[in-house]
Predict the structure.
Amino acid sequence: MTKRKYKWTADAWNVSYPIGTKVRVTLVKKGRGRKRPEETFDTATRSVAWPLGHGETVVLVHSKTGGYSVEPGWMKVLE
């Protein structure tokens, strides 16, 4: 099994984007047989980023629970 490569490491994200960075988070992407429209919301980060066990980097955002992926397509910086 090959390990997936991610664009962002936690260290690189944290150097580039401090806590409080305004972002647009995508919950559901278009395509792949999904009939629901893409769902997004605008918010700001409320934690430093950290890597999950499989390597993907996530961050906490205001008004939501759990970590959200910082990968392009799932999170877009608005500033």
